[in-house]
Design a protein that fits this description.
Blueprint lengths: L13 E5 H18 L2 E2 L9 H9 L5 E3 L2 H9 L4 E7 L3 H10 L4 E6 L2 H13 L4 E7 L12 H10 L5 E8 L10 H23 L7 E4 L5 H5 L6 E2 L9 H5 L8 E12 L2 E4 L14 E2 L5 E6 L4 E5 L11 E5 L12 E6 L2 E7 L8
Parallel strand pairs: 1-16, 2-9, 3-4, 4-5, 5-6, 6-7, 7-8, 8-9
Antiparallel strand pairs: 1-10, 10-11, 10-15, 11-14, 12-15, 13-14, 16-17
Helix pairs in contact: 3-4, 4-5, 6-7
Length: 361
C-alpha cells in the first residue's frame, strides 16, 4: 500500500498509535507486574492485533486473554500459544471449535456451569485432548460467575475429576470498582473483591485440590488487584493505549492512541465539523479530546460527523485543517477500524490490519 509518510498527510479519518509511547506503556505495565511479583496475561479485547500481542509477550507477558473464542482463534493463528478465553464457551459448535483450537495453542476457558463443563469434558475426551478451565467467580460485578467461598469450592469438587478437563484455578473481574472516584473507597471495594477470590482459592486448597492460577485485574484497577497477596496473574491490557478512560481510572500510562481528522465544514464562526463520527470514535464514557489545537472542544458525534465548538474566537481554523483527537476509550474505538497506523516520530512505520475486528462468536 502506498501511503504518505507523515501521519498528518494520511487520508482521514485514521486511527493511529504513537509507537514510542505505546512501547513505553508496555514497559511501564510490565514493570508494575514485576514490582508486585505477578505474571501478566494482557487482555486483547481492545487491542485485537496479533502483532501488538507479540510485542506484549516479547516484553514478558506469559500469554494473552481474549473475550471471545473467535479472538482466541485469531491469536492462535498468529502463533500465540498461551491463551485464556475469559468468557464462557457454550454450545456444541463452539465447544468443538474450542477443542480443535487446543491442537494449535494451550487454550484455557472460563466456566461457571457444571453442565457446560461436562459438555467440554465429553468433547475433549472424545478428541483425546485436555482443556484447562478457570472457574469464574462473581466477586461483585454481578455478571457471570459462581459465588465465592463454599459454592465455588463445591463447584470445583464436582468438576475436578472429569476426563478431558484440567482445573487450573480461578478468575474474577472487579469491574464494578473502576468508576469509583474516591481512591480510598475504590481501594477498599477492590481489595474486598480480590480477597474473596484469593480466600476461595485457599478454601479449595484445603480440600487437597491445587489452585495454580488466581487471575483478575483490568486496566482500571490492576494496581490494587496486583497488590493483594495470592493473586498470580493480571489481565490488564487496554492500559497500553493510555486513553482518557484508563487515565481517569488510574492506569498510569501515557496517551498513545489517536484519531486524526480533517475539518470538513466551517459554515458558522463558532462551529467546525470534522469527518469523524460514531463510526470512527466513541463518546459513551469520555468524549475524545483534541491534542494539537487549543480553543476547540468536541461536543457531539453523529454517524459521520463530529461537531466542534470553537472557544477561541481568534482561532484561524479552515476547511481541510487537521485536528488530532486522543481516544476516549480504546476498547470501544479500535474495533471500529480496519487498520491501525503505527507512527514513530510522526512518520508512519507500519500499518496493522485489525484482525480481531468483528469476532463475535
Amino acid at each position: 500500500m502506498i501511503i504518505a509518510e507523515n501521519i498528518y498527510e494520511v487520508d482521514t479519518p485514521v486511527l493511529w498509535v504513537d509507537l514510542e509511547k505505546m512501547e513505553a506503556n508496555i514497559e511501564y505495565v510490565k514493570n508494575q507486574m514485576d514490582a508486585f511479583g505477578v505474571q501478566w496475561r494482557p487482555h486483547t479485547k481492545g487491542i485485537k492485533i496479533p502483532a501488538v500481542a507479540h510485542k506484549l509477550i516479547a516484553a514478558g507477558a506469559i500469554g494473552v486473554t481474549c473475550a471471545k473464542l473467535s479472538e482466541a482463534e485469531v491469536m492462535a493463528s498468529a502463533g500465540i500459544k498461551d491463551i485464556l478465553v475469559a468468557n464462557e464457551v457454550v454450545g456444541e459448535k463452539k465447544i468443538r471449535r474450542l477443542v480443535a483450537l487446543q491442537a494449535h495453542a494451550d487454550v484455557m476457558v472460563a466456566v461457571d456451569d457444571p453442565d457446560n463443563v461436562r459438555a467440554i469434558s465429553q468433547a475433549a475426551a472424545a478428541a483425546g485432548r485436555r482443556i484447562r478451565v478457570l472457574v469464574e467467580l462473581n466477586i461483585g460485578m454481578e455478571r457471570a460467575g459462581v459465588r465465592p467461598g463454599q459454592p465455588a469450592a463445591a463447584f470445583v469438587k464436582d468438576i475436578v475429576s472429569l476426563p478431558g478437563i484440567d482445573f487450573a484455578g480461578l478468575m474474577g473481574w472487579e469491574g464494578h470498582v473502576v468508576g469509583i472516584s474516591d481512591p480510598r473507597e475504590k481501594q477498599m471495594v477492590a481489595e474486598k473483591a480480590i480477597r474473596a477470590l484469593v480466600e476461595t482459592a485457599e478454601t479449595i486448597r484445603t480440600e487437597g485440590i491445587p489452585v495454580r492460577i488466581v487471575s483478575c485485574g483490568g486496566s482500571g484497577s490492576y494496581k490494587i488487584s496486583a497488590s493483594v497477596p495470592g493473586v498470580t496473574e493480571i489481565q490488564a491490557g487496554g492500559a497500553i493505549f493510555g486513553d482518557i478512560t484508563y487515565q481517569t481510572w488510574g492506569a498510569g500510562t501515557t496517551p498513545s492512541l489517536f484519531v486524526m481528522t480533517s475539518v470538513s465544514s466551517r459554515a458558522e464562526p463558532q462551529r467546525a465539523i470534522v469527518d469523524a463520527g460514531r463510526k470512527t470514535m466513541n463518546c459513551e464514557i469520555f468524549m475524545p479530546r483534541a491534542t494539537n489545537l487549543q480553543g476547540v472542544e468536541l461536543t457531539s458525534l453523529s454517524a459521520e460527523h463530529g461537531v466542534i465548538n470553537i472557544t477561541d474566537p481568534g482561532l484561524a481554523l479552515k476547511v481541510g485543517d487537521r485536528i488530532n483527537f486522543m481516544v476516549g476509550y480504546g476498547d470501544w474505538t479500535v474495533f471500529l477500524h480496519d487498520r491501525l497506523y503505527g507512527v514513530r516520530s510522526g512518520q508512519v512505520e507500519i500499518i496493522w490490519d485489525i484482525q480481531g475486528r468483528g469476532k463475535l462468536t
